[in-house]
Give the backbone structure.
Amino acid sequence: MRIVLLGAPGSGKGTQAQRLIDKHRVPQISTGDLLRAAVAAGTELGRRAKATMDAGKLVDDATMLGIIRERLAAPDAARGYILDGFPRTIPQADGLNALLAEIGQPLEAVVLMEVDHERLMKRLTGRRTCRSCGRVFNIYTAPPPVPSPCGGQCVTPDLFHRPDDSEATIGKRLEVYESQTRPLVEYYGSRGLLQRVDAEGDIDDVTQRLERALVRASERR
Ligand code: AMP
């Protein structure tokens, strides 16, 4: 399985990718996670990327293509992968095509996760990630199972709020999605690879719709 999950920040790409990896036994490759790991490790890449990420802007295409080239060459990606957050621009998509053509393994499907704008804001402002396992919760829609000591909406200590999920940065990230990433819908649509999925509502229902979209894509091949 070689697929791309495409969608605005907060559309549920990461959450759904985590659900697909067990069943399909392929890794989730999240460029956001790779960059955050580089920032946490204080590498040269992390130092360069941090300010751009905190501002809600995109890291440059050459850097991103370098990261993806290296990650796709790892042994666990030989059986396929779910790309989450990459590509995000037309040059990245062109670069990915060229890379996959080199190894004779083209993409099988690009799934567009469609969510209404207002809901995206709520998902992003409420998003909290577990520091130890990376699981994503939402204080409004999918709170962590352990109740907080006060019984209210307090966040348990090992959950963190991504710095780029602040309201100011979210606006910028959605703007960047519209101008730089949305053109990929047409790009992949014209190549017959695009499947649209309604990504609103219950998480299990979205997973089912996603699985059905993958079946439709495989029937088209
Ligand atoms: P994400 O976790 O996918 O929302 O990514 C968080 C941030 O990492 C983005 O807002 C960008 O600053 C950066 N980033 C992640 N993936 C890419 C990409 N494919 N191209 C450029 N920047 C990226």
Observations:
- The two ends are 13 Å apart (CA to CA).
